Amino acid sequence: MRILFVCLGNICRSPTAEGVLRQKLADAGLGQRFEVASAGTGDWHVGKAPDTRTQAAARKRGYDLSAQRAQQVDAEDFFSRDLILAMDRANLAHLERMRPEGSPARLALFLEFTGSTVAEVPDPYYGGEDGFSEVLDLIEAGCDTLVAEYGGQR
Ligand code: 4NP
Questions:
Q1: What's the gap in Å between 1 CA and the centre of ligand 1?
Q2: How many domains would you assign to the chain?
Q3: How many alpha carbons fall within 13 Å on the CB side of residue 143?
Q4: How many CA atoms lie within 13 A of 102 on its CB side?
């Protein structure tokens, strides 16, 4: 199963989701069955490592995001991924607009898809430290659900 997480810049939320899900899948012995990636709807940070605040917050909980590099989502992703999960409604709307007609990927809001009562992972970029740990709380819970519900699928 090929999963793509999408946020705006691909330096805060979606790289966190990529790193957390990858780690949780590896811990559950399911790493081989999934291909996990992330991308941004915007192109400002393409080629850059995740934001230093994002990396620091993730590192505190045991996730290493340092090898990731930002990329921008493109039309091909709607054919090469099974599931595209947006971090907020604005990015979901952007993805719906760019989606090629007839493309097979399933597209959803990440937290809604994982049954959370909170719909969006808030953008932490212009806020303080608390925002980064809130992002991790929401993403860890969502990824736990993904591993539990989709762990048996290919
Ligand atoms: P992300 O956060 O979408 O979670 O990666 C942001 C990163 C950069 C910007 C906005 C949000 N920016 O405006 O550059």
A1: 26
A2: 1
A3: 30
A4: 0
Structure tokens at 30: 């399911």
Check if the beta carbon of residue 145 is closer than 8 Å to that of residue 19: no
Q: How far is the CA of 40 from the centre of ligand 1 (A)?
A: 8
Q: Where are the alpha helices (DSSP H) in the chain?
A: 13-27, 52-60, 77-80, 89-98, 110-113, 129-150
On whether the pTM is more than 0.85, the answer is yes
Query: Side-chain half-sphere of 106: how many Cα atoms within 13 Å?
Result: 9
**Is the pLDDT confidence value at 154 over 90?**
no
Distance CA(10)–CA(44), nearest Å, equals 9
Distance from C-alpha of 152 to C-alpha of 46, rounded to nearest angstrom: 33
| Probe target for ligand 1 pocket from 121, 123, 126, 135, with the most ligand atoms within 8 Å of CB | 123
In which domain, by residue range, is 126 found? 2-150
Neighbours of 106 (CB within 10 A): 12
Which CATH number covers residue 19? Answer: 3.40.50.2300
Q: What value does the mean pLDDT take over residues 91-112?
A: 98
Strands 35-40 and 2-7, sheet pairing:
parallel
